[in-house]
Amino acid sequence: MLLDRALDAYLRHITIERGLSAHTVAAYRRDLDGYRNWLVENGIEETVDVSPAVVGRFIADRSAADPPPAATSLARLQSSVRGWHRFLAREGIEADDPSGRLRPPKAPQRLPKALTIDQVERLLAAPSAEEPLGIRDRALLELLYATGARVSEAVGLDVDDLAHGDVLRLRGKGSKERIVPLGSYARIAVDAYLTRVRPGLAAKGRASARLFLGARGAPLSRQSAWLVIRAAAEGAQITAEVSPHTLRHSFATHLLQGGADVRVVQELLGHASVATTQIYTHVSVDTLRDIYATSHPRAR
What's the mean pLDDT when you consider all of the chain? Predict the structure, then answer.
């Protein structure tokens, strides 16, 4: 099949049958337009003439670009190429998939950024303890740091999820539930919010079981929770980037620095694999140097 016809068929497939978003389809189109143009420049105008060697040369050519592409960009490009060729083989347009041997480049492991304990304390103290929304914001921040909950898990909490005393029920990815300790500071902050603020917020909107409510009584959204975190970071004069995941990263890092077992932290975070949690076990060179200097008999 001619390259243009094959590409149009694939883009229609991912748009109509798979229902991918316009943004995702546009990304596939950009990647595959570049691939199609490269094939034409190398004398290939039909999909039947694309061999594993041709696909390999294309990826090698793109990898050797100056400046070299980021590993994530190259991985996305490979995914686009594999998706197109798999579609052609699955639909019987071509007998084989020439991209079957492609392996995505290994992305460099990025350590999560965690705040120091002092920065966390300043962040948690930033919301006003006198204003109703400040009391709510402090309860949200204390809960995020005390439990390691994802922001989506926190805003998805119902009041009944607190009905277990000093533990909290979280619903994670794939609707998997886990029970995590709440901690005394978070419990006090949440209790203050429940007794002093939430009833007034709930009266402004429709009845909702959600724990955290917005100013008009509707359930607090993820975007609003992100704004709460950003405002607290600004109020605490924290210059480091603070994202919705920062308190989760800090929770895990501080637990491990305090001697917690990595499998316990895995359970608290709701990670399916301990390998995901082990990224937090990396320590900085400065920490290694300090430990070595104080522990080794001949370090100094």
Answer: 87
Is-catalytic flag, 249?
no
Pairing of strands 177-181, 167-171: antiparallel
The residue type found at 119 is Q
Mean pLDDT of 132-141: 97
Which residue has better confidence, 131 or 277? Answer: 131
User: In one letter, which amino acid is 175?
Assistant: S
pLDDT at residue number 291: 65
Give the tokens for residue 70: 């980021």
**Are 284 and 256 within 8 A, CB to CB?**
no
| Burial status of residue 258 (CB atoms within 10 A of its CB: 0-12, 13-18, 19 or more) | exposed
Query: Does 67 score more than 70 pLDDT?
Result: yes
Angle at 271 between CA 270 and CA 274, to 5 degrees: 135
Alpha-carbon gap, residue 143 to 137, rounded angstroms: 10
Residue 173 annotated among the catalytic residues of the structure:
yes
Cβ 44 vs Cβ 54: under 8 Å: yes
Q: Which of 2-16, 62-76, 197-211, 254-268 has the lowest mean pLDDT?
A: 62-76
Residues 289, 57: Cα–Cα separation, whole Å: 45
Pick the range with the lowest mean pLDDT from 158-167, 200-209, 223-232, 247-256.
Answer: 158-167
Please tell me which residue in 13, 178, 230, 245 is annotated as part of the active site.
245
**Those residues with Cβ within 8 angstroms of residue 80's Cβ, 6 or more apart along the chain or in another chain:** 27, 28, 31, 32, 35
Among 150, 187, 198, 249, the active-site one is 150
DSSP for 78-107, please give it: HHHHHHHHHHHHHTTSSSS-TTTT--PPPP
Q: Is 57 a residue of the active site?
A: no
Spatial contact of 166 and 265, defined as CB atoms under 8 Å apart: no
Reply yes or no on whether 230 is catalytic.
no
- Which one from 173, 176, 204, 289 is the annotated catalytic residue? 173
The reply to whether 248 belongs to the active site is: yes
